[in-house]
């Protein structure tokens, strides 16, 4: 008998177990029975490190989550996997969520993963030599260097495409006339196209731009990871989303998933050397160790420590597109494109 409250200890154990199942009591750190099965579809970039580490360090298992990561060749493919039910979670920006909702797809973001745009723009050395542009040139000149170039993208509508168009528009250029946006494919295809000279430039989150720069094949002239573009800071750039039905019916699973991701993010910050070993051995074997270390240092400041959204951060991201004339009608308030219900 528990003498403090007068209830049988066995009865209390049942209550605690029920609360744990609902995600209302934190787990003990030991592996739990696998109560939830979650598949995530995503593009292999370094801001996915919390998910990789949560899997390898057992943080998902501690929360009772049977987790699998399905690599896709472009972030633009993520929504189809969630809408079709092939995956329960993927990543997308708030404008992408708004576009899906406008198409009648019932989706919502539940974890604010990346709080600034992390796409770095790398251009080939021959373009650098011909134009004289560098990272220290005025930002307007760095935008304008894209005129006439073959710019690699993963696929139309992906961030690699959207933000290349943003830079061209900011330079007063027409993306459909003043540059050639070449659909290449995923990370290996972008690397091969850049090395062969098929494309002159591309935008991507670390570590590929850093790897190619370390190979002396090009230079990163816009480092969004370092905040080179003021409009791209303090925004909800990459969010984790699910279907509204899945959130409504599986909130405990998403809470367990979110706790594991948050644990992994904190662990990476205090165990960087071990995190680099894990990431390098399994997920970024094609990235030299020094490039991976530089890339992780560039990426970590952009990863949210707790997954919480702010209305200001979502509004700031949507304002990027309004600035170039794109219609954005979805309000940035909670309950429309995003919710903090899972990370409270």
Give an account of the 3D structure:
The strands form two sheets. Strands 2-1-3-10-4 form a five-stranded mixed beta sheet, with helices on both faces. A five-stranded mixed beta sheet has the order 7-6-8-5-9. The chain is 42% helix and 16% strand. 47% of the residues are buried. The chain is built from 15 helices and ten strands. The N terminus is likely disordered. It is globular. The protein has two domains: 195 residues, 3-Layer(aba) Sandwich (D-Maltodextrin-Binding Protein, domain 2), CATH 3.40.190; 113 residues, D-Maltodextrin-Binding Protein, domain 2. By secondary structure, the protein is an alpha/beta fold. Helix 2 packs across helix 12 and helix 2 crosses helix 13.
Strand order of the biggest β-sheet? 2-1-3-10-4
User: Tally the helices: what do you get?
Assistant: 15
The secondary-structure element order is HEHHEHEHEEHHEHEHEHEEHHHHH
DSSP strand (E) fraction?
15-25%
Just name the CATH architecture of the largest domain. 3-Layer(aba) Sandwich
Helix content: 40-55%
In total, the number of strands is 10
CATH topology type of the largest domain: D-Maltodextrin-Binding Protein, domain 2
The major beta sheet can be summarized as: 5 strands, mixed
- Distance between the ends: 33 Å
Give the CATH level 1 class of the largest domain. Alpha Beta
Low-confidence stretches: 1-28
SSE class: alpha/beta
Overall number of domains: 2
Shape: globular
The rounded Rg comes to 21 Å
């Amino acid at each position: 008998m528990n003498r403090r409250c007068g209830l049988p200890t066995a009865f209390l154990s049942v209550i605690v177990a029920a609360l744990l199942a609902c995600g209302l009591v934190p787990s003990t750190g030991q592996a739990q029975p696998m109560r939830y099965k979650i598949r995530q579809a995503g593009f292999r970039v370094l801001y996915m490190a919390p998910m990789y580490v949560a899997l390898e360090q057992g943080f998902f298992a501690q929360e009772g989550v049977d987790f699998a990561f399905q690599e896709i060749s472009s972030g633009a493919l993520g929504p189809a996997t969630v809408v079709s039910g092939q995956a329960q979670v993927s990543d997308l920006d708030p404008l992408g969520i708004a576009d899906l909702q406008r198409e009648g797809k019932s989706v919502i973001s539940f974890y604010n993963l990346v709080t600034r745009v992390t796409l770095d723009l790398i251009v080939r050395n021959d373009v650098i030599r011909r134009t004289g542009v560098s990272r220290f040139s005025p930002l307007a000149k760095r935008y304008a260097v894209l005129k006439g170039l073959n710019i690699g993208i993963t696929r139309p509508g992906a961030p690699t495409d959207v933000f290349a168009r943003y830079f061209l528009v900011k330079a007063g250029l027409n993306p459909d006339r003043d540059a050639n946006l070449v659909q290449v494919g995923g990370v290996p295809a972008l690397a091969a196209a850049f090395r062969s000279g098929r494309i002159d430039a591309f935008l991507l989150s670390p570590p590929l731009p850093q790897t190619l720069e370390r190979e002396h094949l090009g230079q990163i002239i816009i480092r969004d990871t370092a905040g080179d573009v003021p409009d791209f800071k303090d925004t909800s750039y990459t969010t984790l989303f699910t279907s509204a039905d899945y959130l409504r019916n599986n909130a405990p699973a998403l809470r367990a998933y979110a706790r594991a991701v948050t644990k992994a993010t904190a662990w990476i910050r205090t165990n960087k050397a071990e995190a680099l070993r894990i990431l390098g051995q399994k997920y970024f074997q094609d990235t030299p160790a020094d490039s991976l270390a530089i890339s992780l240092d560039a990426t970590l400041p952009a990863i949210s420590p707790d997954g919480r959204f702010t209305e200001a951060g979502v509004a700031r991201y949507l304002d990027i597109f309004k600035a170039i004339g794109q219609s954005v009608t979805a309000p940035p308030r909670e309950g429309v494109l995003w919710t903090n219900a899972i990370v409270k």
